[in-house]
TrEMBL record:
Keywords: Membrane, Transmembrane, Transmembrane helix. The lineage of its organism: Bacteria, Bacillati, Actinomycetota, Actinomycetes, Micrococcales. The chain crosses the membrane at residues 57-78, 84-106, 113-135. It comes from Microbacterium ginsengiterrae. It comes from the Bacteria. Residues 11-39 are annotated as: Disordered. This is Sox C-terminal domain-containing protein.
Length: 364
């Protein structure tokens, strides 16, 4: 018997597969329909909280050690103990500090403090602090770590190597040199002012510089440089320059000094290249600088007269130098400058002490 429903389906389907029997095919499973479970959230590893590790003991040891060693080095530097800085003990301590710092860098918990200790060690170590100490002691002449008692004794020599103590005591004293210089400068200024109407300006102060004794120390003698004076007015005419130098020479010769010598003159012993470098040209008529000199040998007094003439300075090199000098000392840009210099002179106040101390140096 044919099922009418099945017959209709078959007739109208034109080859469609037959419908399943009532109740479905044997063994077929129906999908279980149910609510979908919520998706599990994905958490990035970067978002997971990380517990911060405290700094390790090794890092603190490295940092404290580096700081303490740096303080020791700075103390030695301030004390001028260059020999201590380069001693075996200090070098050994430096190696120990480096070892502790390097070890801390390999520790995860001590690496941050170890890096700070490394920076301190690189900045303040035996090499850097020792070099600074060596420069300091060399400049000041205070290094005596390896000097014998004989060397230290020689450094304290009150005289000057190669100069007879008797000659030092016999020559004019510092006070006599100062009096002669001031009197001569005053007379030169008076005569030039009376004749040419020049006015004057002090362009510096008296300078006393200790003289070295030739044995690594300072003697009791000094180099004297008088107060330099300069005209406020320029002197640019060639004949006027010669006349001014003539007046100066008259004053000095009257006081027992020799006639003046012109360094800038082509007749001097200076090479032409030197003349051009220091005075502008080899021709005194076109030179921007004149420099004349005399002394009272064998006494130590020496005199200098220098003229600056910016009208003979087309390149402006002298002007640049003079402007810097004017900014420093207030000196006029051009004109005549005069001063005295005397090396290796002894003050009257030190003469007795000098004679006593020289008794400690027989044979020097």
């Amino acid at each position: 018997m044919v099922d009418p429903q099945r017959a209709r389906y078959i007739a109208g389907s034109e080859g469609a597969p037959p419908i399943p029997p009532p109740g479905g095919y044997h063994g077929a499973r129906r999908s279980q329909q149910g609510p979908a479970s919520p998706a599990t959230p994905i958490v990035s590893a970067a978002e997971l909280p990380v517990e911060k590790q405290p700094a390790g003991v090794l890092g603190w040891i490295a940092l404290v050690t580096a700081i303490l060693f740096a303080l020791v080095l700075l103390g030695a530097l301030l004390a001028g103990a260059t020999d201590l800085l380069y001693g075996v003990t200090m070098l050994t301590l430096q190696l120990l500090v480096v070892g502790v710092v390097v070890a801390s860098l390999f520790s995860a918990r001590g690496r941050a403090l170890g890096a700070s200790a490394l920076i301190i060690t690189l900045m303040l170590n035996v090499a850097t602090v020792g070099a600074a100490s060596a420069l300091q002691t060399s400049a000041s002449g205070t290094y005596d770590g390896q000097k014998s008692d004989e060397q230290k004794h020689a450094e304290a020599y009150p005289g000057i190597k190669g100069v007879s103590p008797a000659d030092i005591l016999a020559q004019p004293s510092l006070e006599e040199i100062r009096a002669q210089s001031e009197a001569a400068l005053a007379e030169i200024r008076r005569r030039l002012s009376d004749r040419y109407g020049y006015t004057w300006t002090e362009v510096g102060q008296e300078n006393l510089r200790p003289e070295r004794n030739g044995y690594g120390g300072e003697s009791m003698l000094v180099q004297y440089v008088s107060v330099p004076w300069m005209t406020n007015e320029p002197i640019q005419d060639y004949d006027r320059k010669l006349a001014v130098m003539g007046v100066i020479e008259d004053v000095l010769v009257e006081r027992g000094m020799y006639g003046m010598y012109a360094f800038n003159d082509p007749a001097s012993t200076l090479d032409d290249t030197i003349l051009q470098k220091f005075y502008g040209t080899t021709d005194p008529r076109t030179q921007h600088t004149w420099e004349w000199y005399t002394d009272d040998y064998p006494d130590p007094l020496r005199f200098y007269a220098v003229m600056f003439d910016l009208s003979n300075d087309p390149a402006g090199e002298l002007r640049t130098e003079r402007e810097a000098e004017a900014a420093s000392t207030g000196a006029p840009l051009e004109g005549l400058q005069i001063y005295f210099l005397a090396p290796e002179v002894l003050s009257e106040a030190d003469a007795e002490e000098f004679a006593q101390r020289m008794q400690e140096y027989p044979g020097f």
